[in-house]
Every structure is written in C-alpha cells, then in structure tokens.
C-alpha cells in the first residue's frame, strides 16, 4: 500500500523494497523468501500466516525485524491477501523481544539500523489496511508485546505465560510510539500504571486490562484466531481498511514525523554505559538460568 511504503521510506528503512506492487505472488515465493519467518498465503481464504521462526526464543534481531516488515509489506500489496495471522513456531514463546545480544555493546551505526528496523516493523504491521491478528501461544515480553499491540486482534493462550512492556524494569525509559500504542489499547489509567512499573501480565490479567482480546486453551489459540479472521475478512475491505486508516493515521504520522528524534533519544539511552551494564547483567542472568 502506497501509504505504508511512503511511511517506511520516510523512516529511511526498507530501501530494498520494490517500489511497484508485486501481485500474483505464489505460495512458494513467500515460503522460500525468508530466513527467520515462514510466510504462507492461502489464496482461497486470502489469509496469510506469518510465523515467527527464529529458535530458540524468537528474539528479534535486526534482520528478523526487516524480514517481518518486508513480508508484511509484500502481503499488504498482494491483492490475494486480506488478512495476516502472526504466530510462532517456537513452543510456549511468541517472541522474547529484542535480541539483547545484538543490543549489547552495539556500535552506533548498527544500533541505528537496528532501531529503524524496529520502527519499520511496528509501523508496517500497525499501518497495513489488511486485517492483522496475533495468536500468542506463549510469552510475549517487550518487543514481543509490541508486535501483538500492532495487530487488530489478539488471542493469548492460557498458561504460565507473560505479556507486557517491562522496559522500565530494565532501566530503560519508554518511548512515545510504544506508549501511544499501549494507551490506545489499554487506556490512560492502565498505561500510567503498567508502563511506569514495567508490569508484565499473566493472560487473565492481560485480558482484564484489554491488552489481549481473548484467552483460550493453548491448542485453541490458532483456531480461534482463524475463526475471527474468517469473520473479519468478510467485511468489505475498502470500507474496513479506510476506517482502520482513519483510526491509526495520526499515530502513523506522529511516528513518521518524530522517527529521527526517537532514534536520537534511543541511541543516547541505549548506548549509555549504565544501560549497557544493565543489558550485560541481564544477559549474564539469562545465560546462568539456561545453564541451570
Ligand atoms: C532493551 C531496549 C529497551 C527499549 C525501551 C524503550 C522503547 C520500547 C521499544 C521497544 C522495546 C523493546 C525492549 C525489548 O524487547 S528488550 C528484550 C526484553 N525481553 C525480555 O526481557 C525477555 C527475556 N527472555 C525471557 O524472559 C525468557 O527467555 C522467556 C522469553 C520468558 C522464555 O523463557 P524460557 O522458555 O525459560 O527460555 P530461556 O530463558 O532459557 O531462553 C531460551 C534461549 O533464548 C535466549 N533468549 C531469551 N530471550 C532473549 C533475548 N531477548 N535476547 C537474546 N536471547 C534471548 C536465552 O538466552 C536462551 O539462550 P540459550 O539457550 O542459548 O542459553
């Protein structure tokens, strides 16, 4: 869609995206194009599954975020696609958030590419007129939660899983577009509380605050999303898509207008010694935990 491409180009990312729409793509083209994703478009139902596939935890490295933005953009432009379901092939983990190993001791140029890829991933999912839904069959901390927040409908599995934005707990201040997306979904009061405290939620609480729309047994998560998707794609696409744009355009415009400022602020924070120390300590803990 021209609008998303304009925004992405405005963000200075995805320069490798084709300018022209690439219609008539085949199953195969999607299936074989990505290293960290499986993308399958069913031309009969017009629903695509975009499956996060970076073991062991779907942590989002720079290339994976670029792939997610590219795949979403390709599907957005494909006349055969009316809906995208985002799920994970890693049992019990939707996504572990940003790949902390890439953020630790990152060089400035690399960090800039990384952050622009995060902005692009979010804005492409958030801005597509195609229906998007997340089947959250496990943990979705931080940027994992951000992917889910960018979609139109979220179904999470029952179980000992967490979802939320824990950045404050990592010693990192929230940025404006993540804050806006959270507040647009859960409201001002929940935003004030959850974002300051860096709260993570179990599925039932996530449901209570509106962070997810439904909680179901794990084996029913994907089928439930597929059932809703079937309904949503029946709504005339032009009217629904324009309505979605109407609702989300201001947030998209804000992100585009302030993307460079966001990058500057985040570069200063993220590459500062105290935050690098926190990330280093966090990584060390994770390594110790997984060795136990
Ligand atoms: C830091 C940036 C903040 C910027 C804030 C402001 C702007 C807001 C915008 C975006 C913000 C994004 C912030 C982030 O996304 S930071 C990442 C936050 N993520 C987490 O805190 C989650 C960390 N992981 C876990 O809690 C668990 O791994 C969990 C997902 C619950 C799964 O647990 P479990 O099933 O027990 O699996 P393991 O812990 O053993 O993990 C398996 C292997 O995966 C590695 N791993 C896990 N998470 C990450 C990660 N985020 N990055 C890199 N690697 C990760 C883990 O080390 C294990 O590896 P190995 O098997 O090799 O030991």
Automatic annotation (TrEMBL):
- A molecular-function term among this protein's GO annotations: delta(3)-delta(2)-enoyl-CoA isomerase activity
What is catalyzed by this enzyme?
(3Z)-dodecenoyl-CoA = (2E)-dodecenoyl-CoA; (3Z)-octenoyl-CoA = (2E)-octenoyl-CoA; (2E)-tetradecenoyl-CoA = (3Z)-tetradecenoyl-CoA; (3Z)-decenoyl-CoA = (2E)-decenoyl-CoA
Compartment(s) where it occurs, according to its Swiss-Prot or TrEMBL record? Mitochondrion matrix
Describe which pathway this protein belongs to, using the record's wording: Lipid metabolism; fatty acid beta-oxidation
Question: Can you list the GO cellular component terms from the UniProt entry?
Answer: mitochondrial matrix
List the InterPro entries hit by this protein, alphabetically.
Answer: ClpP/crotonase-like_dom_sf, Enoyl-CoA_hyd/isom_CS, Enoyl-CoA_hydra/iso
Q: Which UniProt keywords apply?
A: Acetylation, Fatty acid metabolism, Isomerase, Lipid metabolism, Mitochondrion, Transit peptide
The GO biological-process annotations, alphabetized, read as:
fatty acid beta-oxidation
| Any Pfam family hit | ECH_1
What domain of life does the UniProt record list for this protein's source?
A: Eukaryota
Per the record, the major location class is: mitochondrion
| Function statement | Key enzyme of fatty acid beta-oxidation. Able to isomerize both 3-cis (3Z) and 3-trans (3E) double bonds into the 2-trans (2E) form in a range of enoyl-CoA species, with a preference for (3Z)-enoyl-CoAs over (3E)-enoyl-CoAs. The catalytic efficiency of this enzyme is not affected by the fatty acyl chain length.
The UniProt family comment states: Belongs to the enoyl-CoA hydratase/isomerase family.
Assembly, in brief, is: Homotrimer.
Q: What is this protein called?
A: Enoyl-CoA delta isomerase 1, mitochondrial
Identify the species of origin: Owenia fusiformis (Polychaete worm)
